[in-house]
Amino acid sequence: MEYICNYCNKKYASYQSRCNHIRRYHKTDVVVDVVENPKPVVVDVVESIQQDKDSKICKHCNKTFCDRIYRWRHEKKCKNTNEIKSEIEIMKKQIEETKKESQKEIENLKTMLQKALKIHPKTLNKINNQLNNSGTINNITIIQLGRENLNDVLTEKQKKSILDRQAMSINHLVDLIHVSGKYKKFKNVYITNLQSTFAYKFDEKLNKFIAVNKNELLSDIVDSRMYDIQKFYDDVYPELEPKKAEQIKKFIDRMGNEEDELKDIKKEEIKLILYNNREKILPKEEAVILIKDNKNIDMN
Question: Does the pTM of the predicted model rise above 0.70?
Answer without folding.
Answer: no
